[in-house]
Specification:
With 472 residues, the chain is mainly β. Helices cover 7% and strands 35% of the residues. The chain is built from four helices and 28 strands. The chain has a four-stranded antiparallel sheet with strand order 1-28-27-26, with no helix packed on it. Strand 22 and strand 23 form a beta hairpin. It starts with 52 loop residues before the first strand and ends in a 12-residue tail after the last strand.
């Protein structure tokens, strides 16, 4: 599995999407791009349609980041009103080991505007769509104030020095100021970031210019018991401080919290024959977790019973890169493989044979990240090496009558390619070498993704249709 980002090739400055002079834009009719079907002809270029998003922002933080995590905050659950504020932590992939750092980010003034999937006036039988068009125009330009000044996201950052590239980083869900990093040096380190988060929360200017140097800080724990570097790591959602780390030589270590520190079991859990790529604790069983490996298998473990898996099965014909355990439907586990396929497994029937209840081969390059929505049990997002981030709703099926009704309401031809799965809700493009994505657990419909050329914050307009009515 190819996971690293080549920092020598990464751009230090990121051009804004769609930034082009009128003389460079070909005078051709606009049409919808079908990924994997259409090819760009000479003189054609892809342009983002901002009306497809309730919110879309991109930003760069210097060196590219292979991994990041969204931090839980006290700003409220199920936030729906713009502008949004969020916090996250990310680790860099710098050219030289001493140049790396862990960044704590406060991102405020994330603007946007909710749109109706079907215009209200059309849905009510009114032929006049001018007001709706005006509304879209307003929302498409919501990053510019009346005086022409930029009103885009405000990014504040505090950096902590980290020796070596950060392969993966995760924040403890119960205490988001506690973070764990997997370094390419083979060390797993736990950090207390409370002072940096407090400084960001209490100031509107702290770290605003992004040029402040990385601060030297000792980790709470520096574990060097792994015999190689790794990528797999996960905090327990049930037991605060309980942690798993897995490495590239198939070993998994269990961490238990102990009097303000951690005790790491020196005897690893073994059951895979190749690199452990990802780990996920069960959302329903405090002692159960899942692992996936380059050996093509998924294993289920109970930490109370020995050092080997309770169950292991062949999940894919190639490396299993990532897994995600559904927090709202704990019987469902999603997995993504190196051949571009991803699958859904029903753990209730795993002992009866094939637990695979859905399998998609839409992507043609390795799956790099997969995650279930925190607000809708049938929705998940996937990123791939084909530079696409896709969103899926597994509850959907093709409905020709509904499609005909939608066409009649919008007075448009909705020519969906016949070979696209009906469960495919949205395709986001524009990032190079996508590596990881996360849903924001407190802002329904928001996804953040990282790639070689920086971060995107996106809220597709049609995802709101699958979320619960929070005002009810």
């Amino acid at each position: 599995m190819v996971r690293s980002i080549n920092p020598k090739k990464a751009k230090r400055k990121n051009k804004k999407k769609g930034e082009a002079s009128s003389s460079t834009v070909p005078s051709m009719p606009t049409r919808v791009w079908q990924p994997g079907v259409d090819k760009l002809e000479e003189g054609e270029e892809l342009q983002c349609d901002p009306s497809a998003y309730n919110s879309l922002h991109g930003f760069h933080v210097g060196w590219p980041c292979l991994s990041f995590d969204i931090l839980g905050d006290k700003l409220g659950l199920n936030r729906t009103e713009f502008p949004h504020t969020l916090y996250m932590v990310a680790g860099t992939q710098a050219e030289k080991a001493p140049m790396n750092s862990i960044g704590l980010f406060k991102i405020s003034n994330v603007s946007g505007k909710r749109r109706d999937v079907v215009p209200k006036k059309v849905a009510n039988g009114d032929d006049d769509m001018e007001d709706e068009d005006d509304e879209d125009e307003d929302s498409d330009s919501d990053e510019e104030s009346e005086d022409g000044a930029s009103t885009g996201p405000v990014i504040q950052v505090r950096r902590v020095a980290h020796h070596g590239c950060v392969n993966r980083i995760r924040a403890m869900p119960q205490n988001p100021h506690i973070c764990v990093s997997w370094a390419d040096s083979g060390h797993v380190q736990v950090w207390d970031m409370s002072s940096h988060l407090n400084a960001l929360a209490e100031s509107e200017t702290e770290g605003k210019d992004g040029t402040s140097p990385a601060l030297n800080q000792a980790p709470l724990v520096n574990f060097s018991g792994h015999k190689d570097e790794g990528y797999a790591i996960d905090w327990s959602p049930a037991t605060a401080g309980r942690l798993l780390s897995g490495d590239c030589v198939s070993m998994i270590h269990l961490w238990e919290p102990a009097s303000g520190s951690w005790t790491v079991d020196p005897i690893p859990l073994t059951g895979h024959s190749a690199s452990v790529e990802d780990l996920q604790w069960s959302p329903a069983e405090a002692n159960v977790f899942a692992s996936c490996s380059v050996d093509g298998t998924i294993a289920l473990w109970d930490v109370r019973v020995g050092k080997t898996p309770a169950l292991s099965y062949k999940a894919h014909n190639s490396d299993v890169n990532v897994i995600s355990w559904n927090r709202l439907a704990s019987c469902m586990l999603a997995s993504g493989s190196d051949d571009g396929a991803f699958s859904i497994h029903d753990l209730r029937v795993i002992k009866e044979g094939d637990a695979k209840v859905a399998h998609f081969e839409y992507h043609k390059h390795p799956i790099t990240s997969i995650e279930w929505s925190a607000h809708e049990s049938s929705t998940l997002a996937v990123s791939s090496g084909d530079n696409q981030l896709t969103i899926w709703d597994l509850s959907l099926e093709k409905d020709e009558e509904e499609e005909a009704e939608f066409k009649a309401q919008t007075k448009e031809q909705v020519n969906t390619p016949q070979d696209l799965p009906p469960q495919l809700l949205f395709v986001h493009q524009g990032q190079k070498d996508l590596k990881e994505l996360h849903w924001h657990n407190q802002i329904p419909g928001m996804i953040i993704s990282t790639a070689e050329d920086g971060f995107n914050i996106l809220m597709p307009y049609n995802i709101q249709n699958t979320l619960p009515d929070l005002a009810a």
